[in-house]
Design a protein that fits this description.
By secondary structure, the chain is mainly α. It has 9 helices and no strands. It folds into 2 domains: 48 residues, Orthogonal Bundle (Arc Repressor Mutant, subunit A), CATH 1.10.10; 125 residues, Tetracycline Repressor, domain 2, CATH 1.10.357.10. The protein is 76% helix and 0% strand. The chain is elongated and about 60 Å long.
């Protein structure tokens, strides 16, 4: 069993790393330890390498995003919930791509493999809710949706950000039409 102070340290390190990496993908382990208010030993005990820390930040972010599905579906119609959820995913993936240079090809593959199942499960839940209420066409496939949305986080986040318009087109394609 992990002690509560160790859990708190890990959570502080992940929060500090997420913040530091979003500001500067090249943030050092020492900068992250200082930001988290922990010593270097505590940081390295939890995350022996920078890559391990980056992977943990990604996994934590995927877990957070996946966990929002039930609340979104409780508050919004399925297509709106899917739009909000996908927008959050796109924001997270854009941050991930900003750190891409810090990861080895093996780490990129590990992150994709670890994230794929939970993300597909979340998309399935959102699509199934829309299929159930008749707002989403019955042949909508979570794998197809994920592949299409891959283009969204590759679109530059500029003032003329095309991602919202592209997402609207994808969502329109999911709608049932009389």
């Amino acid at each position: 069993m992990v002690r509560s102070d160790a859990r708190e340290n890990r959570a502080r390190i992940l929060a500090a790393a997420r913040e530091a990496f979003s500001e500067d993908g090249a943030a050092s382990m020492n900068q992250i330890a200082q930001r988290a208010g922990v010593g270097a030993g505590t940081l390295y005990r939890n995350f022996p390498t920078r890559e391990a820390l980056v992977l943990a930040v990604y996994q934590d972010e995927v877990t957070r995003i996946v966990a929002t599905v039930p609340d979104l579906l409780a508050r919004r119609p399925p297509l709106e919930a899917l739009r909000d959820w996908t927008t959050d995913l796109v924001d997270a993936m854009r941050k991930k791509h900003g750190l891409g240079d810090a990861l080895s090809p093996g780490a990129h593959q590990a992150i994709s493999e670890q994230s794929y199942g939970p993300v597909i499960t979340a998309i399935t839940e959102l699509l199934d809710a829309g299929k159930k209420d008749g707002s989403i066409r019955p042949d909508a496939d979570p794998g197809d949706f994920l592949q299409l949305t891959g283009a969204l986080w590759r679109a530059p986040a500029t003032p003329e950000d095309r991602a919202p318009r592209m997402l609207a087109l994808v969502l329109d394609g999911l709608r049932t039409h009389p």
